[in-house]
Amino acid sequence: MTDKLAVVLLFGGRSSEHSISCATAGGVLAAIDRDRYDVIPVGITRDGAFVLERDDAEAFTLNPDALPSVTDNGTRVRWPETATSRELTVREADGTERSLGAVDVIFPILHGPYGEDGTIQGLLELIDLPFVGSGVLASALGMDKHFTKTVLQAAGIEVAPWLTVTSGDWQRGRELWRTRVMGLGLPAFVKPARAGSSVGVSRVDDWNQLDEALAIAFAEDDKVLIEQAIVGREIECGVLQSRDGGAPRVSVAGEVRVTGRDFYDFAAKYLDAPGIELVCPAELNEGELREMQRIAARAFEAIGAEGLARVDFFLTPTGFIVNEVNTMPGFTPISMFPKCWQASGLEYPRLIDELIESALASRGR
């Protein structure tokens, strides 16, 4: 018998952020307290198969020359058949089946569609398994930049001016949409509505670049945002749900300093490309820090987030503008979310504890 909690670490997935999810899982596997938790690593292949993965943090190191991934090893993890059971089973590659035991909590470290967008959350809610992070609605809202902005704007939170266009809209009325988009001014950013990690994002400095930028974004999603570029400091912070019914807890600020690139793109975030400096804690005066924390907590509550989030801002001469609310932020040890909490006095292993404890407190039975 063991008094340890059984934690399923769920990672990989079908989105273009598959490798980032794997790298995040590697960070958690290396840091999670093995005296408190029995970890069951469940990977989702790019084809959507649930496989029993190796409990090996080094296997998921983020190497620019060989990005980590979940490979189909022939196993198949089976979820509980009813909401009254918490037992997971696995069918081995040779066809034999065995129990993985009863599960206490799921830690779904999934980024992008088919994981971060409410789909996995819906599955887990259907079978009544407690899990870390936001539920279906908040996950879906946070994943969709158009609806995030719509909800935040309705809550009185300032966001960057934007237009949303679908691939069908663009094909049917290209010149009309081009005229509308040009009203935003240059430079502008073109983004898939439902992708993360800056995948499919382009900066447009000349309207002749618009068609190519849209083609890149439409390759990721059939709904795309065109945003007015905001001149300001890029500030980020972490948010944690309170377990006592109080206000969300907000970390100190981190800052992304872009020194030699057009913007904080995928290569800079994950492949150690030059031209970016991450500073944590960021230099903010006391009033700026309090205002950032107030807005971050308000944004967290506005979308109905649970567990955790990272809120990204632009700090302009007139104040803070929210860029995004990420309900499952990058969670590698060098990611901004854990760095901000470490600077706030919460070390990486303890941060994992906080998230698991919060999930059990709100969803445990």
Notes on the structure:
- A hairpin with an 8-residue loop joins strand 12 (233-240) and strand 13.
- The chain has eleven helices and 17 strands.
- It has helices at residues 18-31, 119-126, 136-143, 145-154, 167-172, 174-182, 210-218, 266-270, 286-302, 336-343, 348-363; strands at residues 5-12, 37-44, 50-52, 76-78, 87-91, 97-102, 105-109, 162-166, 188-192, 202-204, 223-228, 233-240, 249-250, 254-258, 276-279, 308-316, 319-326.
- The strands form four sheets. Strands 12, 13, 14, 15, 16 and 17 form a six-stranded antiparallel sheet that branches. A four-stranded mixed sheet has the order 3-2-1-7, with helices on both faces.
- The chain has three domains: 5-131, Rossmann fold, CATH 3.40.50; 142-158 and 231-346, 2-Layer Sandwich (D-amino Acid Aminotransferase, Chain A, domain 1), CATH 3.30.470; 162-228, Dna Ligase, domain 1, CATH 3.30.1490.20.
- The chain is of the alpha+beta class.
- The model has no long low-confidence stretch (mean pLDDT 92).
Would you kindly provide a brief summary of this structure?
This protein is an alpha+beta fold and 365 residues long.
Could you give the topology of this structure?
Blueprint lengths: L4 E8 L5 H14 L5 E8 L5 E3 L23 E3 L8 E5 L5 E6 L2 E5 L9 H8 L9 H8 L1 H10 L7 E5 H6 L1 H9 L5 E5 L9 E3 L5 H9 L4 E6 L4 E8 L8 E2 L3 E5 L7 H5 L5 E4 L6 H17 L5 E9 L2 E8 L9 H8 L4 H16 L2
Parallel strand pairs: 1-2, 1-7
Antiparallel strand pairs: 2-3, 4-5, 5-6, 8-11, 9-10, 9-11, 12-13, 12-14, 12-16, 14-15, 16-17
